[in-house]
């Protein structure tokens, strides 16, 4: 072998191990970063519960301190009242301040207990996820965004389905108080939703997750209230689906429909059929009025439209024939009047005589 080749190998032999080591270190670093991000995403609900518990404890400490200050102020005002330096109104105001501070302290203590319970639940869910192989859809943020998307999908059905727009106009009317409240909470939840970049890089802080979770919960409650009010108005107006007494809890997915509820297509077809029938009746009435007006202008009686013979009332059908009908009287039996002296055929109806025209006298040749 050429000595130059051996010299090159001897000089640059270290390049191979260096490249392999760099690639291995980069691969291991990428795996470590991915594991760190997935662990951070899995612990997001636990970190949010810890953050809320810390804030609740701080508020509880501040509320208890405010209650102690209010109690000291009440003692001071009572002492001044004894020395005639304060009035009874000052004592009553100080007592009200103490009562309000005590209520705030009790509420803060209850918030601390709720935070501890939420912390325990988040820790249990985290330990369960650590034992099993949790998918991406089971992560706290993924579940939260799925709940947000589910509410948006339910609202979009009331916006894009023509039958629902006709049946429930309140869901699209921003002047309705509950619908306006839902739209306000919807905008707030959309502004707090993390961006796809933040989700991919696990850059969502615990405080942001807690705020977004509370906004989604308020969104669900606001939508349920607006939907119930829209269904109440639809039932009062008679546009609600037949057989449905309450709105379905979920309108997405493969959930079975409520028994006895009419399809939305049937409701739309019924509305179209009623509109067509109303237009047909209006056209017939207009044609009859026009015919009557033209006939009166020409000086002749309008031709009656062919109609079915009126049926006798129910009580007339139940009674037997009268004496005249039993005797064979044609007028009482409803038969047409016959001409006197004629054995067959009804009495002829003579036309209305027209005004004779004056003819000019003829001249004889």
Question: What features would you describe in this structure?
Answer:
- The protein is mainly α.
- It is built from 12 helices and no strands.
- Helix 3 (44-82) packs across helix 9 (206-237), helix 5 (140-160) runs parallel beside helix 9 and helix 7 runs antiparallel to helix 9 (206-237).
- The protein starts with a helix and ends in a 39-residue tail after the last helix.
Structural class: mainly alpha
Number of helices: 12
Average pLDDT rating: 74
SS strand fraction? under 5%
The shape is flat
Q: C-alpha Rg, in Å?
A: 44 Å
The main sheet comes to: none
- The end-to-end span amounts to 155 Å
Low-pLDDT runs: 250-262, 305-309, 313-318, 329-336
* N-to-C series of helices and strands: HHHHHHHHHHHH
Tell me how many strands there are: 0
The helix fraction, in percent, is 55-70%
Write the layout of secondary structure elements.
Elements: H1 3-12, H2 15-42, H3 44-82, H4 88-131, H5 140-160, H6 162-167, H7 177-192, H8 196-201, H9 206-237, H10 264-298, H11 314-318, H12 323-326
Keywords, please?
mainly alpha; 12 helices
Give a brief outline of the structure.
Residues 250-262, 305-309, 313-318 and 329-336 have low confidence and may be disordered. This protein has helices at 3-12, 15-42, 44-82, 88-131, 140-160, 162-167, 177-192, 196-201, 206-237, 264-298, 314-318, 323-326. With 365 residues, it is mainly alpha-helical.
């Amino acid at each position: 072998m050429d000595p130059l080749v051996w010299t090159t190998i001897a000089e640059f032999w270290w390049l191979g191990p260096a490249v392999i080591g760099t690639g291995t270190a980069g691969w291991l670093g990428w795996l470590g970063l991915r594991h760190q991000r997935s662990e951070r995403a899995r612990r997001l609900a636990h970190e949010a519960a810890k953050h809320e518990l810390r804030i609740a404890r701080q508020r509880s400490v501040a509320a208890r301190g405010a209650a102690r200050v209010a109690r000291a102020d009440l003692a001071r005002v009572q002492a001044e009242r004894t020395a005639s330096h304060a009035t009874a109104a000052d004592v009553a105001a100080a007592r009200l301040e103490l009562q309000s501070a005590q209520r705030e302290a009790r509420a803060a203590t209850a918030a601390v207990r709720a935070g501890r319970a939420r912390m325990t639940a988040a820790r249990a869910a985290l330990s369960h996820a650590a034992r099993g192989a949790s998918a991406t859809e089971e992560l706290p943020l993924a579940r939260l965004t799925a709940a947000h998307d589910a509410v948006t999908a339910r609202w979009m059905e009331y916006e894009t389905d023509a039958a629902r727009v006709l049946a429930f106009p309140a869901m699209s009317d921003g002047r309705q108080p509950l619908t306006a409240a839902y739209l306000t909470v919807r905008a707030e939840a959309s502004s707090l939703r993390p961006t796809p970049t933040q989700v991919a890089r696990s850059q969502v802080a615990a405080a942001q997750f807690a705020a977004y979770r509370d906004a989604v919960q308020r969104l669900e409650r606001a939508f349920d209230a607006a939907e119930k009010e829209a269904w109440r108005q639809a039932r009062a107006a008679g546009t609600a689906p037949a057989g449905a007494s309450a709105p379905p809890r979920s309108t997405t997915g493969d959930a079975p429909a409520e028994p006895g509820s009419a399809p939305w297509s049937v409701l739309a077809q019924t509305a179209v059929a009623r509109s067509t029938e109303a237009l047909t009746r209006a056209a017939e009435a207009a044609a009859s009025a026009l015919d009557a007006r033209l006939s009166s202008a020409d000086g002749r009686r309008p031709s009656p439209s062919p109609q079915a013979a009126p049926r006798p009332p129910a009580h007339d059908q139940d009674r037997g024939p009268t004496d005249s009908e039993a005797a064979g009287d044609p007028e009482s039996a409803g038969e047409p009047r016959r001409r006197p002296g004629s054995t067959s055929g009804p009495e002829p109806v003579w036309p209305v005589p027209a005004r004779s025209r004056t003819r000019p006298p003829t001249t004889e040749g």
